[in-house]
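Collaborator request, handled under Task 6.
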Amino acid sequence: MTPLDYDFLRKCLKQQSGLALSADKHYLVESRLLPLARNAGFKTLAEFVRILKTGRDAGLMASVVEAMTTNESFFYRDKAPFQHFRRTHIRQCLRGGAKPG
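Structure tokens returned to the collaborator:
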């Protein structure tokens, strides 16, 4: 994965989930996303990221977020994801509408 692809994924993950990856987590992204890319029919992560960059497959990006998040029950442990949730989803619900997936 190129540095530009990694930066793209870092930005998407921050925007979509509040997950902030440091520059040294490149290996973690590759190890978690390569199986996802292969299961989706891509031969390389570069092909996978190219499709993600088009923005045409929200389900695929949701799978990326799912693969990269820790999935534990300590919801309040990390402030960044909770703050993101509060700023986006709770405010949207209070305004009377659910934010599309």
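The cover message to the collaborator said: "The chain has a mean pLDDT of 85. DSSP finds five helices and no strands in the chain. Please let us know whether this matches your experimental observations."
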